[in-house]
Amino acid sequence: MIREASVTRDVPHHAFDAHRSKRDVSRARSSNLGFGFAVSITLVAITLGIALALALPGVARAQFTYADPGTLMAPSGGAPRVGAGRVDRNVYAPGMLFPMEGLAWANSQIYGYGGYMGPGGGQCDSRNYRYPWYDNYCEERSWEMPLCPGGRGHQGQDIRPETCRDKAHWAVAATDGMITSIGTYSVYLTADDGTRYDYLHMDPATLAVSRGQRVRRGQRLGLVSDAFGSSSTSIHLHFNIRKFVAGVGTVYAPTYMSLIESYREHIGAATPDWRAEYVNQTFPLASRPFELAPGEEVEGHLEMRNTGAQPWRPGEVFLGTSNPRDATSAIASAGWVSGNRAATVDRVVAPGETGRFVFTVRAPDAPGDYPQFFNLLRETVAWFSDGGGPRDDILQVRVTVVAPACPAGLGEAWACDGPERRRCVGGTLEREACAMGCGDGVCLEAPRDDDGDGHNSSVDCDDARADVFPGAVETCGDAVDQDCDGADLPCDGDDGGVALADAGVRDDAGDATLPDDARTVKGGCAAGGSGAELSGLLGLLLLARRRRARASRRAS
Amino acid sequence: MRLGLVLSLLAFACGGTDPGPTSAGATSQPLANEPAYAALAAESRDAVDRSPVPVLLLPERYAPDAQVMAGPRWLAIAYSKDGLTLSLHATDVAVNALSEEELQRVEPAPHRVRGVPARTTVNDGIRAVTWEHEGVAYSLEVECADVLEDERCAAPTFALSLADELVALPETFERGARRAGGAQ
Ligand SMILES: [Zn+2]
Predict the structure, then answer these.
(1) What pLDDT does A23 receive?
(2) Confidence grade of residue B115 (pLDDT, cut at 50, 70, 90)
(3) CATH class of the structural domain A276-401
(4) Whether A207 contacts A227, CB under 8 Å
């Protein structure tokens, strides 16, 4: 395979056509750089072309190579421009017959030798008649081409015949069909499915078909020439595939991969070293749902048959991400060889045998669709799609990540779940940790101590007053519960300043009972120690007797 | 050649164009009453009858030298005389070759013919205009023997006006609508 240099060069963006426009033609004529508007083929060049043709077939058949689709030749013999055209590996006319007899050389008529943007020489220069092939779909032109980068470019593919001899090589029907138009330099062949194959620049005087005629695949149509109405061009076949592409309409479809596939067949190319056929996969086919929860992992495998000439060895042949190649996959799991190599083959697989690629896919965290194409490659040597196939857009694992269903009863309102809270919005479960605990679906806040009295709001009964907190000195009769025991302390002068704990409750008869924790009486009259407890108890008894007497007076 | 251009432009300017039915409900009239159809050779008229897609014919002045052909999924009309080659091609077989993402990047069709968006291009001097009508893609191409000097190929004007001038055969449009499950 051709490994294209990654160097690209800027190409002038002005509009020009390989063959036409008054401006270009007059320029070509005046500069004498035109390649075929006048007959500029020298006898020497013709001789070279013939000699080359005699020497080439065996070599050419064995050495067929081609630059990647979308790689265009450059002005003045500069480095080919990778990706300057349309990078499209689709075969738009699968099964078609190569449209020319003999060997053929697909390349540019303007950037090749003899082309007015080429490195010089004449159109019959032997360097125009050798591999690799170059795509020239979307080569710079001024007219609209919706599928080209920038929306403008050359249609179809220019193909030089085996030699530079004019009217010596037959163009043939790529398919069964009908000749639906013959112009002064065009012949259109329409297949049953509506695909049209255009042949331009054949010699009109020697056409072997007529309008309305049904032709068979391989039937001779005409001789490749330089016919171009009242003008002329280089000796080549300009070949189009005209198709109705959904969403765009009738377009000149990319022809390059269809030509490569048919040419391989045409020249009887040897079995490619690296080729595979799909056998089986445990992952659902891309057309079927393969729904996983975020983070879920599934192991599976893909089985491929070795239809190439070389054995596959673990550590050499891998399943890599493709279309685009080598992109890090969103569904890669930790078990992958790398982000763009899902697995290597499980064992040595001889030609004709089937190998397995075992790997695990991991669903990304975000819900969505994650299609991933794969292809086989012999690391550092070739992608299988560059040789015998499959194409880069065939093998696919397509993961759809769906959010887990919400637990029953959980709606959009937050609900506590232990130290966290949860809710479900639009089918998505949301969780929130509550550092201070959760209550009624609300994350509790940390207690505060606004008054700075050393007691936070969870225990301070008035967090705005620094003199109020549990254990503060209680002042009787000020309507303030300083010690946060639930009530102010009443004052009683007769009791000689004996203070009673506020938390005492009365029975129906008005008798006071003492709470267990209220036995320690504090205040100006209080004293610590067991002696104080005893005097407090005495005071309590006195108070109870006096209140009982007061109550009986009120009742009478 | 110049006369042809003048004639067609005159027809265009004088409202002689037939934008064609944009709905399949156009009133049908016998095909024989349509001059562009009546002037066709019998073989071509047979092809019109067999057409799997709605038929647009070249204007009457081209009809005697035009040839209509029909295949299982396509219609083609060819005309070639006095250095002018016209080719109309229509098919309803579409290939899904582009992703949604790429389709969104494709520039909208910048022209209009027959009341719908249209594209033009040039293929080695051959002018083309393309458009769609109810799932059928039409393409009209204009090729000139005098590639450099013939104004019909030097600019898209002629191809665009001729596309507008094509004669729709309502009966075949109704046939197409019936085939597509239309309610007409
Ligand atoms: Zn070309």
Answers:
(1) 30
(2) very high
(3) mainly beta
(4) no
Which residues, 6+ apart, have CB-to-CB distance to A503 below 8 Å?
Answer: A485, A486, A487, A515, A517, A518
How many A/B residue pairs have CB atoms within 8 Å?
Answer: 168
Judged by CB atoms closer than 8 Å, whether chains meet at B85 and A211 is answered as: no
Ion ligand 1 nearby residues (CB, 5 A): A 158, 238
Cβ atoms of B95 and B103 closer than 8 Å? no
pLDDT digits (tens, 9 = 90+) for A184-231: 999 999 999 999 999 999 999 999 999 999 999 999 999 999 999 999
For residue A238, give the chain B residue with the closest CA.
B124
Q: How far apart are CA A219 and CA A199, in angstroms?
A: 13
At residue A303, does pLDDT exceed 70?
yes
Q: Which residues on A lie below 8 Å from B138 (Cβ)?
A: 250
Q: A50: distance to nearest CA of chain B, Å?
A: 28
pLDDT, tens digit, 9 for 90 and up, residues A12-54: 222 222 333 333 323 332 222 223 322 232 333 333 333 333 3
Residue scoring higher pLDDT (A532 or A233): A233
| DSSP output for A227-260 | EETBEE--S-EEEEEEEEETTTEEEEE--HHHHH
User: Which CA distances in Å does A296 have to A301, A480, B178?
Assistant: 17, 62, 50
Q: Residue A495: pLDDT above 60?
A: no
Cα nearest neighbour of A201 on chain B: B124
**Chain A residues with CB-CB distance to B143 below 8 A:** 183-186, 229
CB-nearest partner of A194 from B69, B91, B120: B91
Contact B139 A242 (CB under 8 A): yes
Listed by start position, the domains of chain A span 15-19+56-266, 276-401, 480-556
pLDDT at A456: 87
pLDDT over 80 at A134, yes or no: yes
Q: Residue A461 has which token pair? A: 């009964």
- pLDDT bucket at B182, cuts 50 / 70 / 90: very low
C-alpha distances (whole Å) from A297 to each of A293, A328, A331 are 9, 17, 9
Helix H or strand E encompassing A263: helix A256-267
Q: In the CATH hierarchy, which top-level class contains the domain A15-19+56-266?
A: mainly beta
Paired tokens of A237: 């076949």
User: What is the pLDDT, as a whole number, of residue A505?
Assistant: 32
- The CA-atom distances, in angstroms, between A536 and each of A470, A489, A542 are 21, 15, 10
- Do A276-401 and A15-19+56-266 fall under one CATH topology? no
Task: Report the gap between the CA of B136 and the closest CA in chain A (Å).
Answer: 9
What is the reported pTM?
A: 0.56
Distance CA A458, CA A450 (A): 11
Cα-based distances in Å from B34 to B39, B78, B108, B167: 9, 19, 34, 9
- ipTM metric: 0.84
